Amino acid sequence: MTVSRREVLLRVGEVGGAGAALAAMQMLGLSIPTAAAAADFTLPKSSGNGRSVVVLGAGIAGLVSAYELQQAGYRVTVLEARDRVGGRAWTIRGKDRVIQNDRPFQQANFSDGMYFNAGPARIPSWHHVILGYARRFNVPLETFINSHHATGWDFDGKVHSGRQMIYDLRGRMGELLAKAIDQNALNAAMPKDELDAFRQFLGFYAFLDEKGVYRGNASSGYTQWPGGYTIEGKAIDPLTLKEILPSRGAAFPQIFESIIDMQPTMLQPVGGMDRIAHGIYEQVKTNVRLNTPVTGIRRIGDRVRVEHGGQATEADFAIVTLPPTLLERIPNDFSAAKKAALKKVVILRSAKVAFEAPRFWEADGVYGGLAWTDRLNENVLYPSSGHHGARGVIVGAYVAGWTHENTPEAFTKLPIAEQIRISRESIEALHPGKSKLLESPLAVNWGQVPYSEGVGALWGNGPGDSGPRGDGYAELLRPEGPIVFAGEHLSYLGLWQEGSAVSAHEALKLVQSMAAERAGKAAAA
Amino acid sequence: MTVSRREVLLRVGEVGGAGAALAAMQMLGLSIPTAAAAADFTLPKSSGNGRSVVVLGAGIAGLVSAYELQQAGYRVTVLEARDRVGGRAWTIRGKDRVIQNDRPFQQANFSDGMYFNAGPARIPSWHHVILGYARRFNVPLETFINSHHATGWDFDGKVHSGRQMIYDLRGRMGELLAKAIDQNALNAAMPKDELDAFRQFLGFYAFLDEKGVYRGNASSGYTQWPGGYTIEGKAIDPLTLKEILPSRGAAFPQIFESIIDMQPTMLQPVGGMDRIAHGIYEQVKTNVRLNTPVTGIRRIGDRVRVEHGGQATEADFAIVTLPPTLLERIPNDFSAAKKAALKKVVILRSAKVAFEAPRFWEADGVYGGLAWTDRLNENVLYPSSGHHGARGVIVGAYVAGWTHENTPEAFTKLPIAEQIRISRESIEALHPGKSKLLESPLAVNWGQVPYSEGVGALWGNGPGDSGPRGDGYAELLRPEGPIVFAGEHLSYLGLWQEGSAVSAHEALKLVQSMAAERAGKAAAA
To answer: Does the keyword Cytoplasm feature in the UniProt annotation (chains A, B) (predicted)?
Structure first.
């Protein structure tokens, strides 16, 4: 009996519901797998049944936890150390104050409508959970420009456009591969007809001439730009492989956009990243206590007691979303294994420097996107929206170890003034004569931001990338009795808001199952 | 004597002005060449001195001509056949009527705020002239999403994500090249240390294992998407080269984004492409006569007489921006060579089909961008803005010979209903079960749009691409006495609004020099 594709789908649909049908469609190649289903998380209605939960931290993980608990009928208290919600999703505006440990006080001086996303700035379009909350709470989104081929790549003291670095690499690689094929070095790799077809494609793909030579291409830019009537474009002379890859740092921007979290389309909330946190906050506001740093986390029988400023909040359960570094220092009665695991998490301590300026980069054809450099500032981010507006906030340094072996340490050990100077100098190299237009600098060193002390756990998110997490990761996930844990560091989407949200979902499932178990026991008693 | 870079710049700056200094900086590798200077075009103030110019056509070339002439003190009359300006920059909204030669009447049925750019839809960030007009007339711009790695590529009956097609190609190419290097087939191509360094880079760039094998990578997508706690991502199995390139058509999307006019960042006016034309129109409105098709173009001594509907407009000069196909049919006394050249221009007759729908594509992680197929509809465009809004306009067919050898002819010879059916079917393959949500279809076949009859001249814009233009191109540029010509077809930016604008600038320079010559003669007389 032959079963048609349609029959398979209908049958699977009957038995396993829409999710199973989708999985089957994906198996049959009828649909592209997506992460969309994750956005549908919800706890069973009224399952909270009045039980209480104290949530530590009003970042994304804490706010998501509080919202979902509240929806399910739990009583929730959120304790937040700062005077604002959002945690690392921190957007700086106007005259906002920037206080950092062991750093001079800084005050922002941005014009109306200008803002600086000191923390996360972009959302990949497959991060369905955080996007789902944005949608639910009507947070308007716009496109974040991650990739822009007109920005400068400044390596080894020379600035080339991104487009030249990208497409000259393609040309040079294609040229080498064509040479190998033409010299019959790859005859064993594929059937001859396939190899011939691929060789033909290669000429087209890598802009090779009939002899397989790469002589440059307009994809890499022009020296004379095409115009009206007889003004023909003249393609820029091609770079050699050595010029394209002068140093190890120059390799990174070549793969940056291939990282699945960095691929277009990327999104940002209109007006600042903290708009999503605020959208959730609006739902749970009455249960959030700001300016309430936690000073102790204790178990009392099967309940929890959280101390703060001489007071205490007791609850049936706790969801703790604090970064490991901070959590480890708060007096607690966690297991020795948990305490050891908290100590071992390696934290990324990145930094950003921002300026406000008139939009001089647009005259150079730059609208959003990233510039790259092997200078200590590593990365320059242009604003993704407000094109042709009067002014914009340009991030002159985003230091996280992208292109420079010794950052962020080498950068963050410098005085703020020096960090600003380096950022200015880099922008000057990209836009000669323009750095004098940079105003209102502001440097955020995350390792020194109180209640964050870093941007997250430095372990990979990729498949098979469990190695660096080691045994400590499983220990971090283990509840301490009625206390469960959440945060980006407890996900395979580390360093992303999505990771915070999905880790919260897992923590919520644990709370829910414990609550159900207790209800069962109570009923049996 | 050694001259420092700075000295060179200062000296060049003194003698040649800022432009020369910029050119020198580019020579010294201190700055990336840009096309920005082209945006500074202006005719000498008051140089028109009351002379009259009749402009034929109120598309971009005509509107730019009228505006610049008016600024320089010319008396201008613009004659436009249609009841609207913008020409091919046509945005369809609400209940707009769509009349096409030999086609049934169609009426749009779009909701408030929805629109369909039937003509141009995107602006590259280096098209400084058209962007300059947008800036000057305060036309708000937003990002156009050209490239989006989550869209589907539907070739040979199978849908894969763009990200998988792009990064599996990279992996497979890298694997072949690594094999050639590891087998010493490329030892002669580069010094050994450079080759070693490149081989190391290749492993990183193309996601190869230690043995140089490509086993797939998360860049190509996941079968299990990463999540919270222990949910590790599982990368999708890699495709073979044969699956990545099943047909010639599948090669095109692999190079699409490398075309310099298609590289990010791309832009669009908020609310529809015609906003730029309207921005210019607002400046010259009182001099534009709509509903005025031209029926004759005559020379009277050194002046021009343009006939329309029994009337005539006389002027010192004319700027004719009509497409060659139309111009050729209007009675005129052009040279035989010009008439022959007009007949020979090969015109692209592309087509688009649009629908309005709820944004079902966002659940599949698609926010803007293009899907590709070897079906007759070739290309699907998702809206670049209004993310998470209730509805959007999706272009279900953009047929221009991208991926299918026989389009646009094979598509445009079909009845409208059949064009819509093919578009629906293609969207169904990309988003199973969702095509039933597509409403209010509208098909624009440019070959049959009155007063356009195509989207432009089909000759390449690339360097050295003068071949297909042949001798006819020079003839098309040649003024007929006081009559000069403009339009995208008279530029090396053919098919783009930028081409229309820069060709107008060249035409204006010709008018200006003729006017100056006549003024000189008059003064001498």
So the answer is: no
